[in-house]
Specification:
By secondary structure, the protein is mostly helical. The protein is 79% helix and 0% strand. The N and C termini lie far apart (53 Å).
């Protein structure tokens, strides 16, 4: 019984150490960022009016403002992190983030390419400012 408990404890400790990887915080921040980008793309693609597009942009702007401190902390903690060639632990998150970013940009372009709505233009400018602050 003691040997079984020791083995079980060792297994639990191993799983704990694996879940607490060096880049756990970075992975979490990257996944959260990809998630809000995907949600934004879904909203913009489903929008039926300029007002809905502007509202989606404003929600993404707020999400970027909320994520900003985490992303800056991640950058400070891992200043030499190269997202073009991420460590193995971050490859999947980096690919998801790249895909979400591409989808976000395409959705924004498609939704606004022939649109001169002043509210959408203002929302787009706020979004650009928030993104640049990341």
């Amino acid at each position: 019984m003691r040997k079984f408990l020791s083995t079980l404890s060792l297994l639990a400790l191993s799983l704990l150490l694996l879940s607490c990887g060096k880049y756990r915080d970075a992975k979490s921040a990257m996944n959260d960022t990809a998630e809000v980008m995907e949600a934004y793309a879904d909203e913009v693609e489903a929008a039926d009016s300029p007002k809905e597009i502007a509202a989606a942009m404003d929600r993404l702007t707020e999400s970027f403002k909320e994520l900003g401190p985490r992303l800056r902390e991640m950058d400070g903690k891992h200043p030499n992190l190269n997202m073009a060639a991420p460590p193995e632990e971050l490859r999947e998150a980096a690919l998801a983030l790249e895909k979400a970013n591409r989808r976000m940009m395409e959705a924004t372009y498609e939704a606004t390419k022939d649109l001169d709505d002043p509210e959408v233009m203002k929302a787009k400018q706020r979004l650009i400012e928030a993104r640049d602050g990341l």
